[in-house]
Design brief:
Blueprint lengths: L1 H13 L12 H20 L1 H5 L8 H26 L5 H9 L17 H18 L8 H29 L3 H20 L11 H6 L7 H19 L9 E3 L4 E3 L5 H11 L3 H14 L1 H19 L1
Antiparallel strand pairs: 1-2
Helix pairs in contact: 2-4, 4-7, 6-7, 6-8, 6-10
The structure holds Phenylacetyl coenzyme A.
Enzyme class: oxidoreductase
EC number: 1.14.13.149
GO molecular function: phenylacetyl-CoA 1,2-epoxidase activity
């Protein structure tokens, strides 16, 4: 009965063990996982666009090969994550519909433009850096298929972060114009990368329950703090300035003191009014429409195979 199932579920969470697709789980647990995992999958897929924009313009063959591999990795992450979400009972078609109709969320970070090559460095360093900070604890998420997907994703993200750092390092050792381009990209991506961790803890409606269920292991603000601590020494090595004049370690509070994050900007982007929201969804919808013939051909092939099997 339900009380016994609830107790068994609670015991698995308590023991830091894993819930698997066929296990009983509360409806709200299933719902929040579908929400988070599908948003995460959509982020990986939409996240291909800002960098895909530079593949044909990368400054050398080597840079092009690296960037292409990275963008393909993001596609792979999206596919693992869609598969993980499907184990919870939502279909791939439903998730795709939600995305191309503009009803699904995906990370705010992918609604900013990439006007210069240095943006590839800043995305790798800051965006993939933030992604790792957020996702390493998700390797221990209580839902098995999600946690396991995160293990491989994090390994690849670490490579992405290093390649971004190396792009910026190369630019910072270049001409004054190249150094300026690198600093400008850091200036534009720094604040949006801090927003990736989500709203402040006291305005994060999902955190308490997700932490009780051991989906999230740390709060949004704690991870944001950890990320800043990671960036500060790396910025020094790069020779770039983090664009926050108030940034300093507060020894008394044992935390980084920062300027106020512009949460109005965050909410505008979430409401679909970021610089690139419309274009990102339009591109995704066009790609889906352009791929219709592939889906039709695959379905027809499956139908014929099926007919043969029956005959
Ligand atoms: N953007 O109550 P909370 C990548 C929404 S990394 C948009 O705190 P929660 C790698 C949130 O969904 C990026 N929406 O929510 C890559 C909720 O809305 P809802 C993807 C945001 O879930 C690199 C509402 O605000 N990573 O793709 C954002 O407990 C380079 C209230 O917030 C992940 O998705 C935001 N930044 O915590 C790819 C990681 N923040 O659903 C390509 C997994 C919050 O109630 C190139 N996700 N919202 O309508 C998570 O860890 C969590 O979902 C958080 C949000 C931490 C993002």
């Amino acid at each position: 009965d339900e009380a016994a199932e609830q107790a068994a579920f609670g015991a698995i969470i308590e023991a830091d063990s894993r819930i698997e697709p066929r296990d009983w789980m509360p409806a709200a647990y299933r719902k929040t996982l579908i929400r988070q995992i599908s948003q995460h999958a959509h982020s990986e897929i939409i996240g291909m666009q800002p960098e895909g924009n530079w593949i044909s313009r990368a400054p050398s063959l080597k840079r092009k090969a690296i960037l292409m591999a990275k963008v393909q990795d993001e596609a792979g992450h999206g596919l693992y994550l869609y598969s993980a979400a499907q184990t919870l009972g939502i279909t791939r078609d439903e998730m795709t519909e939600q995305l191309i109709e503009g009803r699904a969320r995906y990370s705010s970070i992918f609604n900013y433009p990439t006007p210069t090559w240095a943006d590839m460095g800043a995305i790798g360093w800051l965006v993939d850096g933030a992604a790792i900070c957020n996702q390493v604890p998700l390797c221990r998420a209580s839902y098995g298929p999600y946690g396991r997907a995160m293990v491989r994703v994090c390994k690849e993200e670490s490579f992405h972060q290093r390649q971004g750092f190396e792009i910026l390092l190369t630019l910072m050792q270049g001409s004054p114009a190249q150094r300026e381009m690198a600093q400008d990209a850091v200036n534009r991506w720094y604040w949006p990368s801090l927003m990736m961790f989500g709203p402040p803890d006291d305005e994060s409606p999902n955190s308490a329950q997700s932490m009780a269920w051991k989906i999230k292991r740390f709060s949004n603000d704690d991870l944001r703090q950890r990320f800043i601590g990671m960036l500060v020494p790396q910025a020094e090595v790069l020779g770039v300035t983090l664009p926050d004049p108030e940034l300093r370690w507060d020894d008394e509070a044992q935390r980084w003191h920062t300027s106020e994050i512009d949460w109005t900007e965050f909410h505008e982007v979430l409401a679909g009014r970021g610089p690139m929201n419309v274009e990102r969804i339009r591109n995704r919808r066009n790609a889906h429409d352009d791929g219709a013939w592939v889906r039709e051909a695959a379905a027809e092939y499956a139908r014929k195979q099926n007919e043969k099997a029956v005959a």
